[in-house]
């Protein structure tokens, strides 16, 4: 398969199956880039593993080889309905899963690559037709779907069919600067049983679901990574940081943004009818960040009229305190209690990590202080 280009334009690239008689994917439309394929293959593995573990349709929104969001099918709240111009009663379970995944970090999901664990149906195809996205990978496409997707991006939208029965080789190989690196493929699944076995006490099933989803999402995110989840959807991803506590802080700030988008001051921002969806999302987030420059304030006025004063510290704090029962997963062990102290600021009540740090006692003590249930899975989930 000749690719559109490599990681950067100007780099020639191609892809081929290890076993041409049994390829893992089939290209149905479009011409993917190197990064499109990396996103598609990693995203497909995430949704396939999570759907198997949870028994629910799962979707993910991928950008630059890490998920911007992931979710199982579930409730669509008023903010999601408003943001994505949908009615929950018209959505199928797989379409709900994608709306929930995209709503995790809607700024980052702009131009994403989509993966879903179930065949794409017409409700999901209509959602995809309405958002800015590069492509989709799924195990099938129902009648009429390809007609909808064929009109997207002037016919260049990438559509990939995944073989749901494909089993990857036991080892993985890559070539880097003249060296060939090989390793055994990570095969230990993250399941409900793994989470339950690693907990010192019985957890609510909702927490088990969230920890499974958060952990599997971390498995397919560039390390170091920390993920937060609630109600069967990932709320934030802190990816690729050299310091784990920086992951925790970054993802925590995104959790705050997700929750604050549901506060009345944000929902009452009245945008002009000509304002595009992504502009509305981006300005909502900039308003929440509270540090608009004079030029930004001028440009925001063009789409909203009078720009309100920043949300007060008291209002912000009162709203954030209402978010609770959040789950957190770390792809490596939490080395210091600072991660716990930071997580507690964002409503975290459940944490899953491999365990085994030299300061495990301090980490457990911090969890006890903050009334957080700690799960030691024994499984490290690094991904590079």
The residue fraction in helices comes out at 25-40%
CATH topology of the largest domain: Cytidine Deaminase, domain 2
Main β sheet profile = 6 strands, mixed
| Spans where pLDDT lies below 50 across 5 or more residues | none
Number of helices: 14
Q: How are the strands of the largest sheet arranged?
A: 1-6-5-4-2-3
CATH class of the largest domain: Alpha Beta
Element-by-element helix/strand order = EHEEHHEHEHEEEHHEEHHHHHEHEHE
How would you name the CATH homologous superfamily of the largest domain? AICAR transformylase, duplication domain
* Oligomeric nature of the chains: single chain
Note the topology:
Blueprint lengths: L24 E5 L4 H21 L3 E6 L2 E7 L5 H7 L8 H12 L7 E5 L5 H9 L2 E6 L6 H6 L7 E5 L8 E6 L2 E6 L7 H7 L6 H15 L5 E6 L2 E7 L4 H17 L3 H4 L9 H13 L4 H11 L8 H8 L5 E5 L7 H7 L3 E6 L6 H10 L3 E4 L8
Parallel strand pairs: 4-5, 5-6, 11-12, 12-13
Antiparallel strand pairs: 1-6, 2-3, 2-4, 7-8, 9-10, 9-11
Helix pairs in contact: 1-7, 3-4, 8-13
Q: Could you characterize what this model shows?
A:
- By secondary structure, the chain is of the alpha/beta class.
- It folds into three domains: 25-167, AICAR transformylase, duplication domain (Cytidine Deaminase, domain 2, 3-Layer(aba) Sandwich), CATH 3.40.140.20; 174-259 and 320-376, AICAR transformylase, duplication domain (Cytidine Deaminase, domain 2), CATH 3.40.140; 264-310.
- The chain is 38% helix and 19% strand.
- It is built from 14 helices and 13 strands.
- The protein has helices at residues 34-54, 78-84, 93-104, 122-130, 145-150, 192-198, 205-219, 244-260, 264-267, 277-289, 294-304, 313-320, 338-344, 360-369; strands at residues 25-29, 58-63, 66-72, 112-116, 133-138, 158-162, 171-176, 179-184, 225-230, 233-239, 326-330, 348-353, 373-376.
- The strands form three sheets. The chain has a six-stranded mixed β-sheet. A five-stranded mixed β-sheet has the order 10-9-11-12-13, with helices on both faces.
- Helix 5 (145-150) links the parallel strand 5 and strand 6.
- Helix 3 packs parallel to helix 4 and helix 8 (244-260) runs parallel beside helix 13 (338-344).
- It starts with 24 loop residues before the first strand and ends in an 8-residue tail after the last strand.
- 43% of the residues are buried.
- The mean pLDDT is 95.
